[in-house]
Amino acid sequence: MMDFIGTANPGFAPYAMDELKRKHPEVAVSGIAPGETFRIGCPSRTPDEWLRELRRDEPIFLRHLFPVEAESALGEDADSIAETMIGFAASCADRVRGATVAVQVRKSQDSPFPFGSAEGRDLMRPALEAAGAEVAARDTRWILSVYASKKSLYMGLSAPEDNLSDWPGGAVRFRREEGLISRAAFKLLEAERTFGLPLGRFSRALDLGAAPGGWTSVLLERGLHVTAVDPAEMADSLAGHPGLAHLRRNAAELSFPPGAFDLLVSDMSWDPRHTCRIVSGLAPALVPGGSAIVTLKLMHRKPLQTISQLAEEYAKTFDIRRIKQLFHNREEVTMWLKRRA
């Protein structure tokens, strides 16, 4: 039996644990850091079997996990904590020899853990390099994870795909470029990465609720022609862009010729049922097989029930490819849909 440390967006750990119990009734779950981090126990199957099943039907709210291969009480002596971490890194020598390794060190807000993420990595680096491993930040063969809670230190070594995300705790970070119109752009960039859906492969996009233009700007940078729908004004930096047509109308009032677009995106801050009616009504404007990326606002107290009900509605028009709460989502999830042929 092996346990795992799971992470969800702040405040969503209870929903992540509930979802896991619904999908995998045999697992045991218990909170570690309120609202965000929890422990998962899988007593009835091997870790590899459970991970394969988890990846086949990835949970919505579970953002990241890693196996607990070593656990120790977290005392106040920094030297003994460092010794424990170095000892675990040394114990991984046979597995990491000749491979690249990322070291990801995190802690809960109430943890007395005395090291920052870079300090923790540098403590473990010599032991890994002594084993012939190369320590790198990205695109590695292995990830060595360290998580310090209020009372315990958890450590494990795993392949990036088994962590669901190769970012520490699943916290996907993008550099804030000069001239970025809004941080909402990060949601679309993360969806592109998470869903394996290169935006540059599309040519004509419909952006609903587009103002001030965070998502529109990403699509324009990818070379798409964008029809942006919003009564509000777009950012000045987009004025006169040859690939942009801005319709200052309410999305519910519009219709388009069949097959006019191969991509529809929507980040409208409306009731999710209203958004569903609009997006479904505009589905014929997508080519058969065209994609839609839609944020679903969780405005009610039962998000799993809301998602289930809305997924049933969207499924009348679309094939639902993925639903995921991304790191850059807050009180919402992101859906990837494909119009049925």
Overall CATH architecture of the largest domain = 2-Layer Sandwich
Helix content: 25-40%
Number of helices: 9
Largest sheet: 7 strands, mixed
Helix-strand makeup class: alpha/beta
Any idea what the shape is?
Answer: elongated
What is the N-to-C order of secondary-structure elements (H for helix, E for strand)? Answer: EHEEHEEHHEHEEEHEHEEEHEHEE
Q: What's the rounded overall pLDDT mean?
A: 94
Low-confidence stretches: none
Q: What name is given to the CATH topology of the largest domain?
A: VC0802-like
| Extended strand count | 16
- Tell me the number of structural domains: 2
Q: How large is the radius of gyration?
A: 22 Å
Strand content: 25-35%
Strand arrangement within the widest β-sheet reads: 12-11-10-13-14-16-15
Walkthrough of the structure:
The protein has helices at 13-23, 47-56, 78-91, 93-96, 117-130, 185-195, 214-221, 272-281, 303-314, and strands spanning 2-7, 28-33, 37-42, 64-67, 70-73, 100-107, 134-135, 142-148, 152-158, 204-208, 225-229, 244-247, 261-266, 286-297, 318-324, 332-339. With 341 residues, the chain is an alpha/beta fold. The chain has 2 domains: 2-170, VC0802-like; 185-339, Rossmann fold (3-Layer(aba) Sandwich), CATH 3.40.50.150. The strands form 3 sheets. It has a 7-stranded mixed β-sheet, with helices on both faces. The longest helix has 14 residues, at 78-91. The N and C termini lie far apart (45 Å).
